[in-house]
Amino acid sequence: MGIEFDIDRIGGVKGLRALEDLVRRAGDAALKHFQRGVVPEKKPDRSPVTVADREAEQIIRDHVLSAYPEAGFLGEETGSHGDGKGIRFIVDPIDGTRAFVRGWATWSVLLGIEAEGVPVAGLAYMPADDDFFAAVQGNGTTHNGTQVRVSKLGPLADATVTHGGLQQFTMTGVGEALIRLAGACDIARGCPDFDGYRQVLLGRSDAMVDPGVQPYDVCAPAILIREAGGRFTSLQGEETIYGGGAIASNGVIHDELVAALSSAPYR
């Protein structure tokens, strides 16, 4: 991806462990709200937000801005801080708020770190399932402390592909891509939010297709997938988290998948 990341830029292993503890603390605070139940509010874009989203993001933001005063910050709820030209922390305090408010355990807390615009570290915590994923560029991806690797299955015709919600396809104008996906792979299963990427990381799925996403949705998943041996691109195959959509795969089927989802008729 064009750079080599020095973990000392975030305080080395000690700094990484502090960030892992921070994400766990934010997730555990949200979990208390999840267990009690919350009433969501609607943001201007009609997406839901809860007191748990705001509390979890504030916990992470306060620590990051104190521990890394020169770093940038981007959070779904509190927006951007700093110029983001060097190290930037990118946070989705509850990825899957709709799942959260309906009692599904598939929500997560995501913290990604980019350096010079490239994802270099990622943490994903699913408190309701007690699942924790971590990756730093060049060091692989772990799931609850154990290294994980994506599958090696191919071709696409034999693959299982997870995907985001149907409205993600229709509202972003790529509804036909879902039909092409159904014809191109062995089985396509709806599995929105980070849970779809989790299935790829655990080898249960061979790819995740995720239209209509923001950088805070995919910064952490991008580096987690790459460090587990997979590929992460936009829907058009660009190596970016700023393409408005994402494909994460085991790498074996990636080019086939990009082609199958393109505007050209599927054959």
Structure description:
There is one protein chain. The protein has 267 residues and is α+β, with helices and mostly antiparallel strands. It folds into 2 domains: 7-139, Fructose-1,6-Bisphosphatase, subunit A, domain 1 (Fructose-1,6-Bisphosphatase, Chain A, domain 1); 156-261, D-Maltodextrin-Binding Protein, domain 2, CATH 3.40.190. The protein is 34% helix and 26% strand. It contains 8 helices and 15 strands. It has helices at 12-36, 51-67, 97-101, 166-171, 175-184, 194-201, 215-227, 254-261, and strands spanning 41-42, 48-49, 72-75, 79-81, 87-95, 108-115, 118-126, 131-136, 141-143, 146-148, 160-163, 187-190, 207-211, 231-233, 245-249. It has an 8-stranded mixed sheet, with helices on both faces. A hairpin with a 4-residue loop joins strand 8 and strand 9. It is globular, with a radius of gyration of 17 Å.
In short:
The protein has helices at 12-36, 51-67, 97-101, 166-171, 175-184, 194-201, 215-227, 254-261, and strands at residues 41-42, 48-49, 72-75, 79-81, 87-95, 108-115, 118-126, 131-136, 141-143, 146-148, 160-163, 187-190, 207-211, 231-233, 245-249. With 267 residues, the protein is of the alpha+beta class.
